[in-house]
Amino acid sequence: MKRLIIVLTMLFAGVAIYAQEPQVLVLKDGTVIRGEVEKLPNGGARVTNEYGDIFEYSAEEVSYAGEELSERQMKKQQKTANVRDYAAREKGYNLFVETGVGVGSQYQEEWYNHPNGGRDMRGVEYTAPALTLNVINGYSFSQYLYVGAGIGFHMSGLKAAYIPVFLHLRSSFLKKKVSPFVSASGGYGIQAYGGGFNNPFIDGGFGVCIKKKTKGEVWLSLNGTFVVDFYNGVAFKVAYSF
């Protein structure tokens, strides 16, 4: 009788396990884990797989937790998770480090020696390669609006350089991994060395933003820069935000 009770207990337990609805946990990186899924109060989930191993994931890692999905539903869920992950740019502080190379026309005053003697100061305009480096600190209100303030170093050829101090705006448009964006800066250029000027400047650009699932983006752009009575040119820039 005792053996019969044990056998029946095991049989009923097996039937109960078999009758339980299959469950699945889908992570944002595409990982799929099947087993007994428990949703946690903080938005995360805990799953026990068929071997009894227990795994726990935070809300930031979980895309879906619940009953088993059909193949079509699974693909749709993973696609939705990817879009949501790229679109949900976090609000808060962002630091940009930006560098670029370009070419432009620079105006500089130099001493001119007259053939018959004497000398005076004259303006000379010449074409020169340019290097830029900017650091921008600011706040992202959403993926559509970033407002910051920056400082940098701009060298035009080997004869002159200035330090730009500026306000900066940036906006990306699409909720996808790759999105077009525009940027604009305005401020003041402080002469570092050479025959430059301490004058206002503006910079504007457009390009593409390559988003990561974790925090951080790569920004590639073509920019135009104009410094009053000193420099105007174009540059290809690469920036990383984190």
SSE topology:
Elements: H1 2-19, E1 23-27, E2 32-39, E3 45-48, E4 54-57, E5 62-67, H2 71-87, E6 92-113, E7 119-142, E8 145-156, E9 160-172, E10 178-193, E11 199-211, E12 217-227, E13 231-241
Antiparallel strand pairs: 1-2, 1-5, 2-3, 3-4, 6-7, 6-13, 7-8, 8-9, 9-10, 10-11, 11-12, 12-13
Widest sheet: strand ordering: 6-7-8-9-10-11-12-13
Estimated share of beta-strand residues: over 45%
How would you characterize the largest beta sheet? 8 strands, antiparallel, barrel
How many beta-strand runs? 13
Number of helices: 2
Shape: rod-shaped
Uncertain ranges: 12-19
Order of helices and strands: HEEEEEHEEEEEEEE
Structural class: mainly beta
Distance between the termini: 69 Å
* Mean of residue pLDDT values: 80
Helical residue percent band: 10-25%
Rg for CA atoms: 30 Å
Name the assembly state.
single chain
